[in-house]
Amino acid sequence: MTLQQPESSIRQLHFPAAATADVCDANPDARVLLSWFHSFGGKDRCAGPIEIISTRNDNSLVKTALKEAGGGRVLLVDNQASCNCAMLGGNLANLAADNNWAGIVVNGAVRDAVELKNAPLAIFALAKSPRKSTNRGIGQRGQPVRVGSERIAPHDFLVADADGVVVLTRPIATGETQ
Length: 178
Hints:
Layout: H1 20-26, E1 31-32, E2 38-39, E3 46-54, H2 60-66, E4 74-78, H3 90-98, E5 103-110, H4 113-118, E6 122-128, E7 140-141, E8 145-147, E9 150-152, E10 157-161, E11 164-168
Parallel strand pairs: 3-4, 4-5, 5-6
Antiparallel strand pairs: 1-11, 2-6, 3-7, 3-10, 8-9, 10-11
């Protein structure tokens, strides 16, 4: 299945979110992202193929992506570790949950911490910032990024929990399609 198919053809996939420690033990090629990510969502773990947005203090593309069917994907928002403003808040988190995104990892900040904890979604970020982002349409979608020293490509596979964020070039397990 190609994950950039039209929204109507995306099927929901379920991937078991194994513990990142177990993933690292079983997969010597696992890439561990910076250990500074904190859990902000109502769920404490997620796993799925990665959809990437790269931007700088502008969440326009984040909104666009989360309006689409997630199909079990994890959205990685690379804000280049900038915590000047939030890339995600309560409204977008609920939109993501409604559209079946498995989780969101923000290399930057989030806001509305209480609302995020109530959203039925795994959300990981570096920090909180009460400041909203700009909306000028800046950024790229579907391009490889570098988070810390690790290169991440679209459709790599991400597993996240309280111990960290791990990226693999292939899924650790496949789920049943619905």
